[in-house]
Design brief:
By secondary structure, this protein is an alpha/beta fold. Helix content is 40%, strand content 17%. The chain has helices spanning 7-28, 31-44, 76-82, 96-107, 121-133, 155-163, 214-227, and strands at residues 48-52, 68-70, 89-92, 111-114, 138-140, 167-174, 177-179, 187-189, 194-199.
Length: 228
């Protein structure tokens, strides 16, 4: 063990360590996501969060029965932090931005399934079904990874139909917020803002199973539920 009896030496060793850490982050490609994660974690801890949900729905707790939680891509930042370390598995695209988002989500304790409607969708579908049948919940943004904004694709409905897992729609209402100039108009609640999280009743796939195009019909129903 090294003991520093001179503050100047301590300062020098600290600077060297920080330089090494910075270079390591650059080499591994984790500098951007880890910086965002650190800043977002500080910001998120200032929020005053309240959950408004039916009695049988609690996204903070995993009950051993797989649930599909879905919300618009613009809510991803806030909800990923709010439900950190709750055992969720998030579906994330394989793009560079997706991998950065995945690193941030992993730092908050989320598991990751890579894939999207445009790249790796079939593999992601199989992994989601397996995860749900194992009793773990999955998180999906139905308008991701690149929009159109707030227009649901059929992937969420397909996963629900094939797994039998219910869908719960989440949303946030931030009293004070920024909206970024990104394709999804990402919502970032301001420091010390009250953030209300709303959750829908579970939406089961059973009523759509005998329809000619069940995925399309279920998706239209989900689109309508998002509006209410």
């Amino acid at each position: 063990m090294v003991f520093f009896n001179n503050s100047e030496y301590f300062f020098r060793y600290t600077i060297l360590y920080l330089h090494f850490f910075f270079l390591l982050e650059v080499v591994t490609g984790n500098l951007v996501p880890n910086t965002i994660w650190a800043l977002a974690s500080v910001l998120g801890k200032t929020w005053r969060t309240k959950l408004e949900a039916p009695s049988e729905v609690n996204p903070y707790i995993e009950t051993g029965k797989g649930v599909i939680y879905c919300f618009w891509h613009s809510r991803l930042f806030a909800l990923a932090h709010i439900f950190r370390n709750t055992g969720k598995t998030a579906v994330v695209s394989k793009s560079r931005d997706g991998r950065r988002a995945a690193k941030i989500a992993q730092n908050w304790g989320h598991d990751i399934i890579f894939g999207s409607s445009s790249n790796g969708g079939a593999s992601a579908l199989r992994q989601c079904i397996r995860t749900l049948k194992e009793g773990r919940s999955v998180v999906i943004t139905p308008d991701g990874p690149k929009g159109p904004i707030e227009k649901a694709k059929t992937g969420v409905a397909q996963i629900s139909l094939l797994s039998g897992a219910p869908i719960v729609i989440l949303d946030i209402i931030a009293k004070k917020q920024w909206r970024l100039n990104s394709w999804d108009k990402l919502i970032v609640p301001k420091a010390f803002s009250e953030v209300i999280v709303t959750a829908s009743d579970p939406i089961y796939p059973t009523p759509f199973c005998d329809i000619t195009d069940p995925a399309e019909a279920f998706t239209l129903e989900l689109q309508d539920r998002f509006k209410t």
